[in-house]
Amino acid sequence: MIQEELVALIKSKVIDELSKNENQNSDLGIFDTIDEAVQAAKSAQKKLCLLDLEKREVIIAAIRKVCLDNAALFARLSVEESGMGRVDDKVAKLILAAKKTPGTEDLVPSVQTGDNGLTLIEQGPFGVIAAITPVTNPIATIINNSIGMIAGGNTVVVNPHPRAVNVSIKVIELINDAISKVGGPKNLICTVKEPTIKTSQQLMSHPDIKMIVATGGPGVVKAALSSGKKAIGAGAGNPPVIVDESADIEKAAHDIVAGASFDNNLPCIAEKVVILVESIAEEFMNCLKKQSVYLLNDTETSDLVEKIIVDGAVNKALVGKDAAYILNQIEVKPISDVKLLIMQVDKDHPMVYLEQLMPVLPIVTVSNIDEAIELAVKCEQGNRHTAIMHSKNVDNMTKYAKAIETTIFVKNGPSYAGIGMGGEGFTTFTIAGPTGEGLTSARTFTRKRRCTLVDGFRIV
Length: 460
Ligand code: NAD
Fold this sequence. Notes:
Layout: H1 3-19, E1 30-31, H2 34-50, H3 53-69, H4 71-82, H5 87-100, E2 110-114, E3 117-125, E4 128-132, H6 138-151, E5 155-159, H7 165-181, E6 189-192, H8 197-205, E7 209-215, H9 218-225, E8 231-234, E9 240-243, H10 249-261, E10 273-277, H11 278-288, E11 293-295, H12 298-308, E12 309-310, E13 313-314, H13 323-328, E14 340-344, E15 360-366, H14 369-380, E16 386-390, H15 394-404, E17 408-411, E18 431-432, E19 438-439, E20 446-454
Parallel strand pairs: 1-6, 4-5, 4-7, 5-6, 7-8, 9-10, 9-16, 10-15, 11-14, 14-15, 16-17
Antiparallel strand pairs: 2-3, 3-20, 12-13, 18-19
Helix pairs in contact: 1-2, 3-5, 3-6, 3-7, 4-5, 4-7, 5-6, 10-11, 14-15
Bound molecules: nicotinamide-adenine-dinucleotide.
């Protein structure tokens, strides 16, 4: 028997042996308890590590395919279960996640050679990762996290948001099934039948969880960062968009409506407040009227704000709803198809500082670019998340980018260009501002390991 066959035989014997202790009822990753889910993921991770990178890519290709084949189904089920977002936009997000999440090519080893020999730095897995996922992008985040984490050699236990549990379970089952069909290990992605905040906390404190990736609001990010473990926090944003006097105003109006209405403003990167410099404000508003928007008058604005902000917080019953549904709350019927509601407010209005996550966009006018930048920084509230600008003035763009310090800065496009939709670069649905990893990908989910060969291999 040649050596390669012998190695393959030994690997398959080890995998069979590891499989003996598995819960036979849960091949597709769905468990009653967090402990069962973590144990299954731990056993799966040992098997994943035995496979070579080529096989890991076969597994990732299978994940991409099953997600692309079922994108329309997943999008429809997400909207039905969560009651949030737009099916067509969710299809676009799922396709983006399936196609543009980097795989193993994202892992780039480095090497140093010199008089003392050779040192190799490689990226190894953490082990089992806890992925806490949001209701706003429930499935795109699962697909994106799973591809990146598995590419890094890890397995995943997902704690989906309770309002998207059924669709998340369906997706995880189909992905595990697709992996099995290409000969990959069972249970690479696991979850529990009834995820809650309590199961999320159990998962974070489980001794076999080696990394926590929390995508959500301030509460979950704080919980992850207080866990005492390696944690990646992808938190809230309130992206401001500035339009200055040098911008292509018609295009700016078009792009802002496209970004702010996309999936009913659920993405954390979506435009949440517009800041106009006075000299172009009238022209911009005229261009905006040509888009699928409804301009609220002052009375409608104050009536609607009372529905949106309840006890100082966003009314969750309106999050991710269609513009027409929101307008209906103040008994206004739009004449035609409306994607976005617009309100003109002053710079101290509470809507300017609120992460509304619904297709209602406040617009503020200020006298000049310096005032616009100062206000944008205030609106962003130190989230270091996303900012957008429509401008042809390099000095203004530089000044704004430096002042706002966001992870993503989009110039002259809709916000989603910043995650690779119509803009260059890979995609992610976990943007780690608070902990600084930025746009996460496979390499984010690995640890650097060094191997030194003293006085060894050099060819020069
Ligand atoms: P959420 O914080 O309510 O829930 C997110 C997840 O965290 C859920 O699975 C939930 O069960 C869990 N969770 C919530 N509080 C917890 C706690 N105290 N301890 C442990 N687990 C907890 O957020 P959401 O409404 O689902 O999503 C919207 C928020 O997520 C917005 O603020 C949005 O900006 C943010 N978000 C950020 C990114 C990013 O990449 N930075 C991506 C998507 C969404």
